[in-house]
Specification:
The complex is a heterodimer. By secondary structure, chain A is an alpha+beta fold. Chain A has helices at 18-47, 49-53, 58-61, 64-91, 132-137, 161-176; strands at residues 9-14, 93-97, 100-107, 111-118, 122-128, 139-146, 152-159. Chain A contains six helices and seven strands, in the order E-H-H-H-H-E-E-E-E-H-E-E-H. In chain A, the strands form two sheets. Chain A has a four-stranded antiparallel sheet with strand order 1-2-3-4. In chain A, strands 5-6-7 form a three-stranded antiparallel sheet. In chain A, helix 1 (18-47) packs antiparallel against helix 4. In chain B, helix 1 (23-51) packs antiparallel against helix 2. The chains are: A alpha+beta, B mainly alpha.
Chain lengths: 179, 85
């Protein structure tokens, strides 16, 4: 992303971290899930004598080395997912400069889209906070209507969207003199 | 259907898990993950160096990613060697 001559970054906005935190918690739970399943399996063996009599235990069936090998690969898979999601989250942003709002949309590793709206082309900014969790954690969607090529800028899960709208409007007024 | 589950019957032995010890399969899986790990590391490196230049978080992500991938692949490889030795 190249800035124009005299252009200065005022603020960088990223999505509210709520969803990335939830995803991280799920991934941590999945990382621990084999241990939980093994513990449950051992508990089951203790409570079902027939299984114990028959010599059914996980270490008898699957060697410990293989369990550790598979667990390493399982953790690696989860790590890939976590880094992928975090990269997507962190590189997806709105850059507010003194001349325009730049929307950088990262879609996974192999798609990226950058578009911008100059302040004098901005017609309206709409904020939508919909649902229990967005209301509780104060995040929502900001839509900027423009008269430019890209008619609408949508930024979902923006943190504190009402204040953000006021902030962008303030810069717009400052830079263009429009009210 | 006769579900005779008396303890005298060796129902456990009916599981033939010898295939789990075939080295070729696990070596193939390990090499696949090594390939994916290297590819993933390079893609992450490219993205964070290109789009988050001069940022501390960029260095943290790149270094942590490399350490975690190397540790897990190293662990998997050691365990496979122990298993098949």
């Amino acid at each position: 992303m190249k800035l124009e001559a005299g252009e200065k970054i005022e603020h960088i906005i990223r999505k509210h971290p709520f969803y990335i935190i939830v995803e991280t918690i799920i991934i941590i739970f999945l990382a621990l899930s084999p241990q939980i399943l093994i513990s449950l399996f051992k508990l089951l063996i203790n409570f079902v004598p027939m299984m114990a009599d028959a010599g059914l235990s996980l270490s008898n069936q699957v060697p410990l080395g293989l369990q550790a090998f598979l667990y390493s690969l399982w953790l690696l898979t989860l790590w890939f997912i976590l880094v992928y999601r975090f990269t997507d989250y962190y590189l997806d942003k709105w850059v507010v400069t003194n001349k325009r709002v730049i929307d950088v949309e990262q879609r996974g590793f192999f798609a990226r889209e950058t578009s911008s709206a100059r302040y004098h082309k901005i017609q309206d900014i709409t904020v939508t906070i919909s649902g229990f969790l967005p209301t509780l954690f104060n995040f929502g969607t900001i839509q900027i209507q423009t008269a430019a090529e890209v008619l609408e800028f949508i930024f979902p899960d923006a943190p504190d969207p009402i204040r953000l709208k006021e902030y962008i409007m303030k810069i717009k007024v400052r830079e263009t003199g429009d009210h | 259907m006769d579900l005779n589950l008396s303890p005298d019957l060796p129902f456990v032995s009916s599981y033939n898990l010898d295939f789990l010890l075939t080295g070729e399969l696990w070596w193939f899986v390990l090499w696949l993950y090594i390939f994916l790990g290297v590819l993933f590391g390079l893609v992450v490196l490219y993205h964070w160096l290109r789009y988050e230049t001069n940022s501390v978080i960029s260095s943290v992500v790149i270094v942590t990613n490399a350490i975690v991938i190397l540790t897990l692949l190293g662990g998997a490889s050691i365990n496979l060697n122990v298993l098949l030795s």
